[in-house]
Amino acid sequence: MSRIKVITIFGTRPEAVKMAPLVKELKSRKEIDVKVCVTAQHREMLDQVLKLFEISPDYDLNIMKDKQTLTSITTRALEGLESIFEEEKPDMVLVHGDTTTTFAGALAAFYKQIPVGHVEAGLRTFDKYFPFPEEMNRKLTGAIADIHFAPTKGSKNNLLNEGVSEDNIYITGNTVIDAMEHTVEKDYKFQNEELNSLDYSSKKVIMVTAHRRENWGEGIENICKALKKIVTDNDDVELVYLVHLNPIVRDVVYKYLDGVKGVHLLPPLDTKETHNLMNKSFMVMTDSGGLQEEAPHLGKPVLVLRNVTERPEAVEAKTVKLVGTDIDKIVREASELINNEDKYLNMSRAINPYGDGLASKRITDIILKYFNIEKSV
Predict the structure, then answer these.
(1) CB within 10 Å: which end of the chain, N or C, has fewer?
(2) Cα–chain center distance at 18
């Protein structure tokens, strides 16, 4: 057959980071005609990644609006993608992970009877409201997908237990590890001078992110109270909190932590700055999903500020630990890592279960095999 046409769809920064190395790999194969479509569910943070990886979208739906809702994101993405699919008539659509863009992309492709490949498939918490709406976005996308690119054996088993045929599931590793091969630099100098001024050798710098929807309100308040106690009780600790732009999060964080000695409140960094801050930090505290995969690759322990995770492999590997949003538990677990070198080393030296940096090549080879095309030498 002639070249196959593949459309990749993503709309947020985490998706873009993980899809970028795959887009690059797809474009390197002469058998594949690649089109990149972004919904821009998150505008500014998405654009940072596109610039970093030098990716120019073929289609940009630019759906982000003030006070957007899950319903509005879904309907605008569906309507925009319908016309693109009618024009391009792709042989396959690739979506990633668990965002609303992911689900809308899969659904739009299903309505046009276009095969769907789901990158980072099979992650589950088994609680449809945690994380919300990601858990159901991922399950619904999995119900539609024709090929499931599972990052680990555990995620494959989740799909098998849901009745997905083993013939349609492939363990590939996680593409975020591929991305980090291009972003982390040994002697990196930050664009942000406040980060350059930190003493990473004599201070224990803790990188923090916390913004998930299920933590809004009391969860974020408890996290901030715990962080304040941690930095107050430990003179050798400094916190760098990358504060999400959402005022629901930002207002609470600044209420409790603005002006506290040893706390640095910064806006979200671009991907390269974030990865290199992680690399220089002592450890990470986060409610993010992606950081649970990224930080262990750099040997950084992660305390997860959530009660459940769709990444149990990291918990089993002891690279991350769930601490929830209970103030006392957060303080206790952080203090143990700060003050107990053996416990710190046990986590920092644990093997990351998320791959070897070759996920994008595996996925591309699988797509060619799906269409009975021999890969180029």
Answers:
(1) C
(2) 7
Q: Identify the architecture of domain 193-349 in CATH.
A: 3-Layer(aba) Sandwich (3.40)
Give the start-to-end residue ranges of the domains of the chain: 4-173+357-371, 193-349
Cα–Cα distance between 219 and 58 in angstroms, integer? 40
Output the pLDDT for position 376: 53
Is the pLDDT at 374 greater than 80? The verdict is no
pLDDT exceeds cutoff 90 at 332: yes
Tell me the pTM.
Answer: 0.82
Q: In angstroms, rounded to a whole number, what is the distance separating the alpha carbons of residues 240 and 234?
A: 15
Terminal alpha carbon distance of the chain: 18
Query: Can you identify the CATH homologous superfamily of domain 4-173+357-371?
Result: Glycogen Phosphorylase B; (3.40.50.2000)
Positions marked catalytic: 98, 120, 134, 211, 213, 244
> Are the folds of 4-173+357-371 and 193-349 the same?
yes
Q: What confidence tens digit (pLDDT) does each residue in 277-314 have?
A: 999 999 999 998 889 999 999 999 999 999 888 889 99
